[in-house]
Amino acid sequence: MVKTMKLIGISFLITLAVISCKHNEGDYHGIHERITKESENFKGTTISSDAYINEIKTIEITEGDHTFLIPERKSQIKSYACSDCHTVSLSELKDRKNIKKAHWDINLNHANEKIMNCATCHNGSAMDHLKSLTNTKIDFNKSYVVCSQCHTKQFKDWKGGAHGKRIASWAPPRLSNTCVNCHNPHDPHFETKFPDRFNTQYEKERK
Amino acid sequence: MSDNNKKWFSLNINSKKNQNNNSCGCGKPSGGCNSNTPNSKEISNEEFTKAAINASIGDEIKKDGFDQVFDVKMDRRTAFKKLTASLVIGAGAVSTSCSVITDDESKEKAQIDWEEQFKGNYKLMTNEEKSATVDRLVRSYQLRTGKNINMSSKNAEDDVLFGYAFNISKCQGYMDCVSACVEENNQDRNSQMQYIRIHEMKDGKGLNFNEADDNYYHEVPAEGHFYMGTQCFHCDNPPCVDVCPVQATWREDDGLVVVDYDWCVGCRYCMAACPYDGRRFNWSTPEVPEEEINKDQHYLGNRMRKKGVMEKCTFCVQRSRAGENPACVEACPTGARIFGNLLDPKSTIRWVLENKKVFRLKEDLGTEPKFWYFMD
Predict the structure, then answer these.
(1) Is residue B172 part of a domain?
(2) Which residues in chain B are closer than 8 Å to A204, comparing Cβ atoms?
(3) Per the domain annotation, does B7 fall within a domain?
(4) Is residue B137 part of a domain?
(5) Distance, in angstroms, between B25 CA and closest chain A CA?
(6) The whole model's pTM is what?
(7) CB–CB of B339/B320 below 8 Å?
(8) CA distance A123 to chain B (A)
(9) Same domain, yes or no: B225 and B287
């Protein structure tokens, strides 16, 4: 008799334990738990960014763990290729006197003169390329490599997606603006301006 | 009419079952009664009467005429449809006698209006019913203005949960997002309703909304200030949904908190319940110049609203469900706005949540907003 009672008691406890442990589907303690649980079996979606980026010329890049698309650059630069005009070497050009400066309209406002000049980024010996601090050739399409030499924190955030602008679509494949799509490399800061609109109705209501 | 004991309104979730029993939504014994009840099997008058009597409550078995049709257990919608059908026939008859040319159009208009007036809650609709109401709204717009619109009733996709991140170090207060939002979502131009507010805050004062200015007009970014945008945060545990007395607002499977503008009664409980000032009310009939109307619409998103209903940010459901970025994300020139799928471990929004120091507003309320802020 005592044995049966014990058995019943134990089985009751076990059932209770099972019931109390059981989580209802969709019951989470918070959004972070929900995200972790529900993304465990993430299979991908049918939604793709292809429809929104097909008109944009892109190149695929891989940096660390991240592979994504950035807009192609060379075809967007009006006077590219540089070698179309730069037929003689820079040292030869320097010797010529009384000629008009070609890039008079470019005002370099990036760091200060002691740190940067044209030749910090532009390759004097291979005009159609940029250059790294150690004089390696860098393709204009991958200009972000030049920027990343100094702006390491921004580069890390940009790779992950926290810095910079994702364009067209939130769905994969990812297409993000590269540095020079938002920042003018010769004058990289954002200008002040007046806001796009002013709500006159708010103003009236709050008087 | 659905339940004699109830003195209050409740949603009749059994409507489908009832329709199946009687084979036809409007109670007509033969098919072809209504645009959105396909596959109605034909049954004889006798069978229908029998089924109707069986389904009815009360002891009286003998019924005649009116009672056979109306004294049957049915939901509000079915009942009104029966009334509608007869009224439309009446209206049609009147217009036929008065006019010859406008006959078909006005009849169709009347039919659409009645069916729209007495349709169910979008949340409970089947996919067929959803596309039927969307078709009616598109046709109605065409009849009224002669212009065509696209309206979608696209449902939430599996494995998608939308989330948003806002970089307060990057926002410059340009308000390009606000303009893009107004244009995208057909917001009332007269009352200058805006879903997004950009708060100008003083450096060193913390997130002090009392001292922040959300309606500035001077060159931005102003010295010694930072900018922080607020809008609907699409809470995972939304208090606005809990308080709605008619269930006109709910959370979709992809996390969007949406409003059925046709089911909303305009009580503004949700507006009071929202701790983030995320909801807006149409005090007057929203007006948008015809040439400025965004014609790519979604039933739950930017279709034209009417006076006396709530509305709010939907993360541009018409765009986001199709894969496009919301209008505010697209318009932002600084990249301060990040949008994506929280369930995709490789998405940029997930990287931000896992690698940046993120926070949300009023986290202690347990509303679980899916809108995070972070700094560089």
Answers:
(1) yes
(2) none
(3) no
(4) no
(5) 34
(6) 0.79
(7) yes
(8) 29
(9) yes
Q: Do B323 and A203 touch (CB under 8 A)?
A: no
Same domain for B193 and B92? no
Compute the distance between CA of residue A80 and CA of residue B350 in angstroms, rounded to an integer.
38
d(CA B88, CA A109): 73
What total of structural domains would you count in chain B? 2
Going by pLDDT thresholds of 50, 70 and 90, the confidence category of residue B303 is very high
Which residues between 21 and 80 in chain A have a beta carbon less than 8 angstroms from any beta carbon of chain B? 30-32, 34-35, 38-39, 42-49, 51-52
- Put simply, whether A161 touches B (Cβ < 8 Å) is yes
My answer on whether B52 and B191 are in the same domain is no
Sign of CA dihedral B108, B112, B113, B114: positive
**The Cα angle at residue A143 between residues A138 and A146, in degrees rounded to 5:** 75
Q: List pLDDT tens digits, range B349-365.
A: 999 999 999 999 999 99
The pLDDT tens digits of the residues spanning A37-64 come to: 999 999 999 999 999 998 899 999 999 9
Is some CB atom of chain A closer than 8 A to the CB atom of B175? yes
Tokens of A119: 């030749």
Give the residue from A142, A137, A167 showing the smallest Cα distance to A155: A142
Q: Do β-strands B371-374 and B225-230 pair in parallel, antiparallel, or remain unpaired?
A: unpaired
Last residue of a domain, one of B53, B88, B118: B118
Owning domain of residue B105 = 15-118
How many Å lie between the alpha carbon of B191 and the closest alpha carbon of chain A? 6
Residue at B288 is within a domain = yes
The verdict on B105 and B207 lying in the same domain is no
Question: In this complex, do B178 and A196 lie within 8 Å of one another by their Cβ atoms?
Answer: yes
The token duo for A71 is 């807009």
Return the structure tokens found at B302: 């930017």
